[in-house]
Amino acid sequence: RFTDGAGLEGLGTLGGSSSYCDSNGALNSDGDVVGYSNTSDGSFHVFLYTDAHGMADLEASVVNLPADLSGQIRNSLQVNDAGVVCGGAGDGSGDQPSLLGRTYEAFLLTPTP
């Protein structure tokens, strides 16, 4: 992320070689960043980076995440000033409804204290 005080700052990874916050990521007014990063096994997971906690793997924090969504949550990510993350998940397959030939499900992740 870029701030006036620190300039361009690398946020790290979730154990893999790269992290992304492109058109599928977002930044809120507190400087919290949501994006996706590959893990040590090569799969991609959504992260939330905050100054207080660094980079956190959101998929590892979700209780009862459906197995078919693991590694698929990384589309149209947004984070608001309360730390609530929303976006889309899917890989274009399965029995879910299809949009332009791709399968997506919406999600909302609300942090707990």
Describe this entry's structure for a reader.
With 113 residues, this protein is mainly beta. Helix content is 4%, strand content 45%. The protein is built from one helix and twelve strands, in the order E-E-E-E-E-E-E-H-E-E-E-E-E. It has one helix at residues 58-61; strands spanning 2-3, 7-8, 15-20, 26-27, 33-39, 44-50, 54-57, 73-79, 85-89, 98-99, 102-103, 105-109. Strands 3, 4, 5, 6 and 7 form a five-stranded antiparallel sheet that branches. The chain has a three-stranded antiparallel sheet with strand order 8-9-12, with no helix packed on it. Strands 1-2 form a two-stranded antiparallel ribbon. The longest helix has 4 residues, at 58-61. It is globular, with a radius of gyration of 14 Å. The two termini are 25 Å apart. The model has no long low-confidence stretch (mean pLDDT 77).
Report a brief summary of the structure.
With 113 residues, this protein is mainly β. It has one helix at 58-61, and strands at 2-3, 7-8, 15-20, 26-27, 33-39, 44-50, 54-57, 73-79, 85-89, 98-99, 102-103, 105-109.
